[in-house]
Structures are given as structure tokens and as C-alpha cells.
């Protein structure tokens, strides 16, 4: 997809304008918690923006590139659900007041978007120069899929990355939050608040997830413009999804299996298409509509199965007598 520099600039400028407007809404007035109604509205708003952008790609380019965008967007948005579990752990670990969590997520995601942009540029250049990397990406996705299945149920662990450990040691930090402020001056000394540390944690942790999701979307398209915009729209809607899902996150017990299946599918797709490009005619190319269908069906099945299991467990817990009621007097 041949995209001019002015088109890149217009899209990036538009995304930054939307994020700036979002941040202005967050910062104006007194800090307040995000209601389910607000979260639902903003999730719908960002999903609508992504759909309109995909339609625009269809009108300006063709249906093939639009299909690549929608497949990439759905893949990134689906894989981002896994991020939400870790974001939830980070918020709990740093005891972030709920009324400030939306600002933390917005700035953290903005950091992640910048870092992903760099990662995408490097990845696109590397794939253009070294075709054998497709085999590496495919094998890595299969390895990641197996690890996700093996580590199912261990999402409560969060290891601090090197940048976060350095920030906690090097930056003079206040012991408590000072409203939603990031920097404060106390006794003539400039200090950072725990708010900055949490934002760094969110942004850098997301980059670790990008090590899985970026190779996954490169398995659907090698177009850097589509890869970047699909990531951008997925990240922009992630913050509101965090508040919309809320306690539902703990009920999505099978979601990791669905994500593992998607990564494994794309890993196989990458290897098959790399073999096909290398002259192995027996290796098929998987069409974008097939990839899109697999992603959608997988997420629907795992979500429905997760909610069904949660309802069964809840009914079972109600039916079984508690230890206190069966104990001897």
C-alpha cells in the first residue's frame, strides 16, 4: 500500500488530536470515576472510528487492504484483552485511586503507542530485508501460544522490567499520591509522584506484549501503515475497555486459550506463506477473509464458554452449603 508522507502525517496528527481531546476531557474539572455508561460510550466511539477508517481504506485503496486492516485491528484488540489483566494487577499493586486510573491508562498507552511505532518501523524494515525472519516470527508465535496455554491461571504474577526498576531507584518519589499530579515541588525540591511510576509501568509492560502482537499482525499484513494504524486504534480503545469490562475480566477464564489459538493460527499462516513465497507450491496462502473469520469465531466461542463456566460455578457455589453451616456446634 503506497502511502505518501502527507497521509502518514495526517493520520498521526488526527490520532494525536483525538488523544489530546480525550486527555482534555479527563483533566477538566474534578477527578471522577469512569462510569459504565461513559466507558461504553467511549468504547463505541473508538470502535466506530476504527470502522470508519477501515471503510476509508476500502474507498481509497481496495477491499483487500481494508480486510487486512480489520483483521489486524481485531487481532490487536483481542490480544489487548490480555494486557488488561496485567493493567489490573499494576493498578492494584500500586494502589492507584480509581478516580485517577483513566489518566494513568491514557498517558501509559500514549507511551506505548510511541514505542510500538518505533518497533513497527524496525520490524517492517527488517522483514523487507530479511525474508527468513518470517520463519522466526512464525516459530516465535507458536512458542508463545504454547507458553500461554502452559501458564494458564498464572496471570497474577507481574515482574518489573529493567526500565521500571531503574525509575523506582533513580527518581526521587513522594511516598503517596498527590492528586493526579505527576511532578510536585516540596521544600524547594522537585519530586515525581507514584503516578509517573505507574504510567511507566503501563507503557513499558505494554511493549512486552507488543513482542507477541506485532509479529502476529505482520503475519496478516506486511504493510507498515496498516500495522501501525491497527495498533493505534486498538490501543486508543483499550483504556475504556478496561473500565467497561471491570469485574468481567476475572470471568473470562478461557480467554487465554482463545488468544493462544489465534497466535498459533497466525504462526502457522506465517510459516506456510513464507514457504509458498520460497517456491514450495504445496504450501497454501491463507486468505484474509479466512483469517478474519477464525479470529472472530475464536473470540466469540471463548467468551461465551468463559461466561457459561462462570455462571455454572456461581450456581454451584450457591447450591453447596458453606463450611460454617455444616460445622458441628
How would you describe what is shown here?
- This protein is mainly α and 329 residues long.
- Helices cover 74% and strands 2% of the residues.
- It has one domain.
- A hairpin with a 2-residue loop joins β1 and β2.
- α2 runs antiparallel to α8.
Topology, element by element:
Layout: H1 5-27, H2 36-60, H3 63-93, H4 98-129, H5 133-150, H6 162-170, E1 183-186, E2 189-192, H7 194-218, H8 224-236, H9 238-245, H10 255-277, H11 288-319, H12 323-326
Antiparallel strand pairs: 1-2
Helix pairs in contact: 1-4, 1-8, 2-3, 2-8, 2-9, 3-7, 3-8, 3-10, 3-11, 4-7, 4-8, 4-9, 5-10, 6-7, 7-10, 10-11
Contiguous low-pLDDT stretches (5 residues minimum) are none
What structural class is derived from the secondary structure elements?
Answer: mainly alpha
Total strands = 2
Count of all domains: 1
- Termini distance? 76 Å
Radius of gyration: 22 Å
Tell me the β content. under 5%
Short description:
The chain has helices spanning about 5-25, 35-60, 65-95, 100-130, 135-150, 160-170, 195-220, 225-235, 240-245, 255-275, 290-320, 325, and strands spanning about 185, 190. With about 325 residues, it is mainly alpha-helical.
Which features does this protein show?
2 strands; 329 residues; mainly alpha; 74% helix
